[in-house]
Design a protein that fits this description.
The protein is an alpha+beta fold. The longest helix has 21 residues, at 166-186. It is globular and about 100 Å long.
Amino acid sequence: MLVAGATCLAAALGAVTPAVAAPSAADDGGLSERTARQINVLQRVKATQSKAESKVDSRLVVEQRLRQDRSLLTAAPELNTGIAVNGNGSVLVEIRADRVGEELVAEVRRHGGVLRHVSPATRTVRAELPLSSLAKLAARGDIRQIEPASEAMTARAGAPKSSETKEARGKRIAEQARAALAAKQQRAGVAAVTSEGDRAHNADNARRDYKVTGVGAKLCAMSDGVDSLAAMRTLGELPAVDVLAGQEGDGDEGTAMLEILHDVAPGASLGFATAFNGDASFADNIRKLRFELKCDVIVDDVLYFNESPFQDGIIAQAVNDVTANGALFFSSAGNEGNLADGTSGHWEGKFVDSGKGVGRFVGTAHDFDPGAGVQIINPMSAGSNGKPVTLFWADPLQRATNDYDLYLLDGNGNVVALSQGVQDGLQDPYERVNTTAGGQRLAVVKYRGEDKYLSLSVLRGRFKDAGELKGFATAGVTRGHSAAKDAFSVAAAPAAKAFTGGEAGDPANPAGPYPGSFDGSSKLERFSSDGPRRVFFNADGTPVASPEGELRQKPDLTAADGVATKTPGFSPFYGTSAAAPHAAAIAGLILSGNPGLPAAEVRQALTSTAVDIGAPGVDNRAGAGILLTDKVLAHTGASPQPRAVAQPPTVTPTSGDGDAFLEPGESAALFLPVLNNGDGTAASVSVALTATSPGVTVAPRTKNYGTIEAGQTGLNQFAITVPASHPIGDPVVLSAKVTFAGSLSPTTTALSIPIGRPSPVAKDFAYAGEPVAIPDGDSAGVTVTIPVTGAGRPSKVTFSLDGTDCSAAEGSTTAGISHTYVGDLTGTLTSPSGQVLTLFQRQGGGGNNLCQVVFDDGAAQPFSGVTATQAPFTGTWRPVAPLAPALRSSADGNWTLKVVDNVRTDAGHLRKVSLHINGYE
């Protein structure tokens, strides 16, 4: 039951204040009586929340109350919580807990939850749950808070909002693949596209003069997705990209970023993982790119709205982990504008008690006016429609004891949206709404607690004067993981044509120097976010040394945007999304020309050679300035580095039964190639070849290869003898240590030499269980086990999705995997030794069913190129990742196939699958 009256409510909260008359219009600070009355009613909802409900975000609570009692809309007729509720009554949420383990996951499922991501490291579960179940789940003692699914945006400027369905996406990707293949076959329309930033940063001349291309460095991008990756590879715009399994994402900004990385550092290897499955998944993927994919440089262009400006949250902490491990991390500063150009919707400063609100609603409203007047609402521009609005205050994350609320108002004083969560020591100091029209206003109310330092942002909107109301803004909109201490926050300056977007009244956008290069006269983009960033807490929630906070100089650097790529829809590509990969690629060139250079020295080189383009010296918009590649490579003394690496040998038996296979008791000539895949000439190359298998002899142990030019291969012959006691099928393992003159010397490669004749007959092992449903949109997926016995060491492994009568019929009971929209699925095979091998990864678009599909490393065509028109999918295909690593150990034991449906609405079953293993004889 709702508490009646503001005075009664205040008493219930232990803050009894005598009622006073409503202020006159002249001294209400811009807050109407209507607004005060509606806030009062909404605060009653907050006051009547149960202890469990207090751990649930207020928008979710109000949405549930509205569904139970629509009379609340009578009091606040324009109210919209902004919560997206599915037709089945479910909502996507983040569950923050003290600990995430199997017991909590099971409890989420018992409440009807569908898992999207489980992150023990960040103590977060992302799940789709019935709205009506949230308070019941929150009653658990280990749940700290349940909030709407964390949302994010990339730092691309001028991008239209995408409302593409997965069906439309599948058709688009299929058409791109067909067009790319046709263009390649006809040799038409395949002219390479190079970012104008390559020229503007003098990277083209620097590569020519210093002969450094990125060889030896691995550059990895994080964004929305890489939809066009296969098409760009077909067109020759991109090389192979190491995509984290199941983390290809949706969208194409990642593809465009990879193109920029490859244009500037063409010799570097590339990787990718999506940042768009929630903040916890983003944090987990940052760590995986470094610790699993071994990325040297990571770059992203994403801001999660719940990233605190005042403390390193879970994403920034992941950045701290990888930079502490030696990685370089670059991130977009953001396109949220700046105070100098009047393009920012950001205000921060200490809460000022306006004295308004007592007796009308609980607590007092903040006074934005720094002068003698009082103004408790901050008006936004006509262009600030559909913008996320965030409020933070200086309390530690998950330990907020001061309680502030945020209200969105229309011009008539109606409360249009609210965020009034309870903060009682378990929650984040964070409130969030979305604007629903231009020209709306914001009010901040301190419900209870101390006067804290605030940060209020209407992201990519503007605080702007409206009649007698003044729009108040301050500098420092950049925040989040881009502002992590050791991250590089990158601002944007146009390489070529001027950006044509922005709001009415914004200053003119500058053009860039292309075909020239950047210099001191270059100008920043008007939308580029400003700093600095004031931080009040360490990552663990303890206060920083100074009560005034720690001031971080952000952004750090400036790089090019407004460039061409071949990725559809990204030419030109504007925003700090385009700037960050240019800076990251230049760092890749530094590492390539200076192997092992410490991160601190890379930072010093970048900042000390950057060309000042803002206020004199390091400033809060351009940082140290704009990068010129030739200057920074000269500063570091970069030089082309050779990299001589042993390649798989050719083995020709010289004794024994005369066949082509090396067997126990036989000797062979071993021809060992050494490839110089570096940028410089490899001089004084020698190879020490040693056997790690008992009884095997290699002669001579060392051979001189002389000089090997860049891109060339040297060849020498060794002799190898295998003892008669060596087991058939057990490979001989050799260690090839290659030494040469250069910083990357030596390189060591383990070489596996098969022993025995591969059997032409495969042993078949099938999943023998009943058909199992593939959970719809659930990250847990389904796993089946295939036991293998008596196979021994494999000479070849293939895997098949079986079936009998193959068709694209929905609900087929004769396909190995029957599923509508196969493009939702990811399949991974795990060997008994723990090798995880990706078979298929969201290929096939809207096509149905996998039937009589064989995954074979020797197949002519990759499964990554299939389109919906080929359904039902049959035939022999190369898997996304080779199966060859499974040959390194015995095939005996349990193999597991995991299939995950990554997107909701389509469903299916796993029915018949089998493993085929050839041994030795």
